[in-house]
Amino acid sequence: MNNKIQQDAQHLAIGAGKFKIPMPPSFSDKHKQRQYEKQRLAAGFRAFALHHFDEGLAGHITLRDCIEPDTFWVNPLGIHFSMIKASDLVRIDHLGNIVDGAHAVNNAAFAIHSRIHMARPDVNAVAHAHTKYGRAFSSLGQPLLPISQDACMFFENHGIFATFTGVVAEKDEGDLIAESLGEHTAVILQNHGLITLGSSVDAAVANFILMDSCCQSQLLAQAAGPLTLINPDIARKTKAANGSELVTWGNFQPLYSMLLA
After folding, report:
1. For residue 24, what are the CA distances in angstroms to 5, 33, 111, 203?
2. Does residue 144 form part of some domain?
3. Does residue 175 contact residue 95 with C-beta atoms inside 8 Å?
4. 120 and 103 Cβ atoms separated by less than 8 Å
């Protein structure tokens, strides 16, 4: 465990030095790590299904392979998120060649995710779906505002891709999406939906669920009246705490436990 995660643990929980709290695992065997991460990816799709983030053939979560990092795992085309198993996942390279798996892959998943994985070597997982609140909020062409502790996670931490040209099918558009993402954790695809990133599948999925919820909260608040925003300095401080590697990974763990049960 690195020093940064140890420090975050001390800030996160009373008794972190004495009692066991969830921590990201480490592996000496890359093949065991691959299997573990594929299982987490399959669980990510189950979590999306639980939140009704499943719209026909749309939506994808990808995971950089820990052994061959110029390839990534993605969901097979046409299998419902609630039914995806680790053995169903497909591995594809940045040229669009399927190198592992027995299913076709959504072309938009390749066009978007391959370019983000190439542009952001610090990112291991990318999540995207067409959700009710993400779609609605994306039509506004506005950023999420720091109206709550949770929304501070995305303060100065997401981009807006302000061009909609139809279903993403070309790598050039994927490059533009990656460019609008910059170094942030998320991007709003105008008139389309949301994308979130993470150092793990756990973090990317938890970030997505949180972002969609923050879209819902802001839509409700804007409909009710004028917004009262959190002070920018406080928002940045809150983002630093909520956006740490340990917290973003940890946000997925209660949901994973429920999925296992």
Report:
1. 9, 12, 30, 11
2. yes
3. no
4. no
3-state secondary structure (DSSP) of residue 180: helix
Between CA 28 and CA 30 the distance in angstroms is 6
Which residues share a beta bridge with 33?
none
Read off the CATH number of the domain in which 237 is found.
3.40.225.10
d(CA 135, CA 76): 23
* Cβ within 8 Å of residue 126, ≥6 positions away: 61, 62, 112, 113, 116, 117, 195, 196, 197, 204
pTM: 0.92
Pairing status of strand 186-189 against strand 158-161: parallel
Q: What one-character-per-residue DSSP string does 218-232 give? A: HHHHHHHS---PPPH
Secondary element (H or E) of residue 203: helix 201-224
Range of the domain at 171: 30-260
Q: Which residues are CB-neighbours of 91 under 8 A, at least 6 positions away?
A: 65, 71, 72, 73, 74, 98, 99, 100, 101
pLDDT in tens, 68-111: 999 999 999 999 999 999 999 999 999 999 999 989 998 888 99
The packing angle between helices 253-260 and 30-50, to 10°, is 80
Q: What is the DSSP-derived secondary structure letter of residue 55?
A: B
- For the record, the structure tokens of 79 come out as 């299998």
Condensed to tens digits (0 to 9), the pLDDT of residues 24-68 reads 899 999 999 999 999 999 999 999 999 999 988 889 999 999 999
For residue 122, is it within any domain? yes
